[in-house]
Fold this sequence. Notes:
The longest helix has 10 residues, at 3-12. This protein is 16% helix and 44% strand. The model is unreliable at 8-18 (pLDDT under 50). β2 and β3 form a beta hairpin. By secondary structure, it is of the alpha+beta class. It is a lipid-anchor.
Amino acid sequence: xxxxxxxxxxxxxxxxxxTVTPDGPQHAVNLSAQLQQVAKVQQWELRGKxxxxxxxxxxxxxxxxxxxxxxFNFRLTNLLGITLVHLVVDDDLATLEADGKTYKDAIPEPxxxxxxxxxxxxxxxxxxxxxMPLANNSYQLNDKGLLASLESQCNACEGWQVTYGNYGNVAxxxxxDIWLPHAITLTQESPLPINEAPSNKPVTTVLKxxxxxxxxx
Length: 217
């Protein structure tokens, strides 16, 4: 299945859910202590909804994402719980299943692009999703001392901007807690391939992730 057909399939099976939106801490947090805690989180699981838009194409689906260090299990499903995309990264092998077919590569980025059209930098995203900037990212804080936005500057992820909202308090395995974002938007402007955009005008890619539940095993 081409990524364009996958877009259409997901759009036809868009899901919705009623959730209580976290409103973040009442008082400012210590950013240094917060980032130290976030850096220690190497195993996590999230459930929510992902919406994607690139040019005139748009789609949304349920998301389930479980990680253990650099390995992860990522799944998009429709309203009936039927899997649309399943991506597993384990032991330096990425395996993607979509439309009854299986694809493998040493790295996940080419598979993600084939299935969705998104040129996603996976390693940075594993940090960004937790509200943790990388060493070469510039960032802004909100009035509570948590990340409000960041801008990437690495060679592999240049041009991505990330904004955050709705931080919620999540229990850690050690009995403590940590503030994690429940609303994340990634935006990038880049030119389409010449055969798709003769004028070579920039196209905006927007990826929104709304997280209903974080679990730290």
